[in-house]
Structure formats: C-alpha cells, structure tokens
Amino acid sequence: MSVTSNAPTRSIDGHLLPAAGTWEIDPGHTDLAFTGRHFMVTKVRGRFTGVTGAVEIGEDLRVSRVDVTIDMTSVESGSETRDEHLRSAELFDVARYPTATFQSVDVEWRGTRGTVHGDLTIHGVTRRVPLDVEFEGYVRDPWGGDRTVFSARTRVNREDFGITWNVALEAGGVLVSKEVQIEINLETVLRGGS
C-alpha cells in the first residue's frame, strides 16, 4: 500500500521508497566505475565522470524506466597513458563512439531491491544486461532539493561489445580480462521538487 501526496517518498509494504516522478541524475554525485584484471591478476579500476539521464519512477515500481548516457571520453583510471589507450581505436574508440547508453526494458522489484533489465550500447553494439539495483535512501539537501541514492552492479564481457584488443602472455592467458565488473552509485534529484 502506498501513501500518496506530494511527498518525495512513500511507504510500500513497510519500505521507504521514492515517490513516483522523474528523478534526474546528478552527474557531480554519481560514480560509474568498472574493474578489470591486468595480467590476469591485478585489479585495475576506472570510472566515467560524465553520466547523465533520469530514473522515471512509476506508481507501480515495475513500470519504472531508466535512461542513461555515458560520456566515454570522460574515462579516468589514474593513469593518463592508460586513459589515452582506453579512448583509442583499439578499445573504446571514442572518436567514433563518444557515448554509451543504457535504456531499461523491464523492472523486477521487491522491497528495496530489484533487477533492471536493459539495453546497454557500447562501441556501437547493443546487448541486454541485468543490473542488480538497491535503493540506498532519501535525503533533502540544504537547498530544498529531494535526493535519492541507488546502487547497481553487473558484469559484462567486453568482447560482446566488439572491444577485443588484447595481448597474449608468454606464460599463458591474456594481458586484459574479458570480463568487466560495473558498479554504480547513482544520486538523483526530483524534477520539479520543492
């Protein structure tokens, strides 16, 4: 059962959740990170700082929608040399594919967690991926804005998106892992909120 009003949150089956409406992504407080392995052992982390879009929360959470655009040129991994390689034609090829997108197609939700299935387009290739999502909470900021925070994670095989560059290692294996873990901390602001 939901409490309906102009309130930015509501209670559904005893769980505090965002009210229905459009919650715009705050790029300055959103972290989209990825982790891969280097030499099959070392974890290498990176992030994208240019993330925009919105989460459209439905009265019924299962009809909610997510639409995100990622500026692939905004990649940061702690090494300018590595970042330049990531942007190059061998990997992300940002000259041809400057953005990536995620558009939801189906939402499963229970309590404060759910799975958002969506079309992820990277490097000009679209694949359906599941995002495991959790609602982390709500806060009103000092300027009267209503904010919600979500976390999400998934794993993808970069070769499924045509990003196949690699180097074989003499001892076996490859320089860069095919599997990449993606973790997202998403802060949103209610559009038209008080």
How is this structure best described in words?
The chain has one helix at 80-87; strands at 9-12, 15-18, 21-25, 31-38, 42-48, 51-57, 65-71, 75-76, 99-110, 113-122, 125-140, 146-157, 179-190. By secondary structure, it is mainly beta. The protein has a single domain, classed as Lipid/polyisoprenoid-binding, YceI-like (Lipocalin, Beta Barrel), CATH 2.40.128.110. It has an 8-stranded antiparallel beta barrel. A two-stranded antiparallel sheet has the order 1-2. Strand 1 and strand 2 form a beta hairpin. The two termini are 24 Å apart. 22% of the residues are buried.
Short summary of the structure?
By secondary structure, this protein is mainly beta.
Describe the protein's topology.
Elements: E1 9-12, E2 15-18, E3 21-25, E4 31-38, E5 42-48, E6 51-57, E7 65-71, E8 75-76, H1 80-87, E9 99-110, E10 113-122, E11 125-140, E12 146-157, E13 179-190
InterPro entries: Lipid/polyisoprenoid-bd_YceI, TTHA0802/YceI-like_sf
Family: Belongs to the UPF0312 family.
Domain Lipid/polyisoprenoid-binding YceI-like: 22-189
